[in-house]
Amino acid sequence: MTVVSVSMPEELLERIDQFSEEHGYTGRSEVVREASRNLLGEFEDAKLEDRALMAVVTVLFNYETTSVEERMMRLRHEHEGIVASNFHSHVGSQYCMELFVLEGCLEEISTFVGKVRATKDTLTVDYSVTPVDEFGAGALGEGGAHAHGGHGSAEDTEDASAGED
Fold it and tell me: What is the percent of the chain with per-residue pLDDT over 90, rounded to a whole number?
C-alpha cells in the first residue's frame, strides 16, 4: 500500500484515534481508509442518477470566521439555479449555521456539497439527498422552486411568516 501524509488538526487526530480504539479498528489508517471509501461512494448511488433530487445541506462554523460565511454567500449565488432556499441562524454564543435546500440532479448537488466541504474552517457539513420525482409532476411547483427562497436570517424568516395565514 502507498503511504500518504495528511495534515489535520490535533483535535481531529485525537478523535480518530479514540474512534479507532472504541470501535475495534487496527489503527487510524483503517479509519481513514473506510471514511474515504464512504465519502467517495456517497454520490455514486446509481438509484439517484437521472432523477430529480432535493438535498438539505447544513454547515456549522465559528461566527468569527467570516471567510466561511462569505464563501457560503458566493456558493449560494454561484449555484442559484439549484439553491431553492437558504437559512442562516446563530447557534449558541459563537457559532453560525447555514442551511441550504437544493433542487437539482446528482451532479449539480454533489458539486455544491463538494465545494462546501472544501471550504476552509467549516466545523461540520451534513447533508441528505432525497429523490423527489416519485412525488409526481408539479409536486414542487413550477420549475421546482418554492416561493419562499432567499437570503434572510432566522429573524427575517419569522417576521416574514408572521403575517401569513
Answer: 42
Grid cell locating 114: 463538494
pLDDT over 60 (residue 140):
no
DSSP the chain: ---------HHHHHHHHHHHHHTT-SSHHHHHHHHHHHHHHTT--GGGTTS-EEEEEEEEEETT-HHHHHHHHHHHHHTTTTEEEEEEEEETTTEEEEEEEEEE-HHHHHHHHHHHHTSTTEEEEEEEEEE-GGG-TTTT-GGG--S--S--BHHHHHHHHHT--
Q: What average pLDDT does the chain have?
A: 80
CB 32 within 8 A of CB 12: no
Helix 10-22 to helix 28-41 angle (10° resolution) is 100
C-alpha grid cell, residue 158: 419569522
